[in-house]
Queue: 2 jobs
Job 1
Amino acid sequence: SPGMRDIQMNGKLTPKRLVKTHDCVSEFSNRYICLWRDGRDVMVSYYFFCRRFEGFSGDFMDFLKSPRKPVLSWAKHVSNGCLNSTGDSRIVIRYEEMKSNTRSALMKVLGFLDVPVGEKRIQNALRQTEFNSLRKSEEDHLNRCLDPEDYFFRQGISGAWTEYYSKKHLE
């Protein structure tokens, strides 16, 4: 289910709301931001998420073949939200683009949302969303360190799928 946040500007609530969800955006009628990541990396990330939070115990190939049908689910989600809608109702941000030029991606989002933000807040946001800051926040919240594979923020890189896919996976 979506997580909803109120948006404040100058300390006052606005009629705008921010909804973070993995649900298909066809369920929403308002403007939205589609964050689109390489599907192979998504599968690796989702595999580790399911191992940690949903009790999945098989290997990566078992996961890809599981009744969850993760590949089809991801393809449907991206097709509905990122590829099949047009006009000014959405912007698409590639995860890889966000990783390589975080400031540019942030400015694109702020422009789309028409949210004026000062340079100091932009710099603060960029610092707080660096991988090491996110990992440290997770450690502080849990009050302990985890096995590196059990973090929600596991690696913070693009292209990690090459460590998990074999030629058989890609066929």
Job 2
Amino acid sequence: AMIWVSSGLRANDAAAEPAGNKDSTTEDVKEEPQTDIFADNVDMDFQAGKATFSGNVVVSDGTMTLNAKRMIVHFTEDKKLSKIEADGNVVILQPKEGRRATAGHATYDIKTGTVVLTENPILEMGDNRLQNATKITYFRDNERVLTEGRAKIQLIPEGDGKIEMFGGNDNQ
């Protein structure tokens, strides 16, 4: 089964002005690309505002792909994505940025742009690897990572000795 879902607006895309103060142009409001969800089985519960996907689940929004055995998608009252919970061999790929994350469980909050990884989480950024933490929180919109529990990070320097992380920022 394939489900198409519009994720709507990101929290930081719309200006904080009241609607009456805006002109009729839409240049300051940016639509997110569609989100495609593939799964062997789908259970849509419209009254509860959630959908459960199981078996070979794949979610793609054009910049990020998530694979898992099972996933629950939560919707707002106006039928927009609010949260995705994934379980079982979770793999998240952001190929353009060279990032890959794996975990037993992941929660993605659409509004805040945060991905929380638990159950043996590993985050790979290029050749660099973050592991052994009990919880890794990745903030998509501002490229920040927060860990809980004793973490190990393996940094592989480039030929010039610099460490490249987060899609090209040079950190030493």
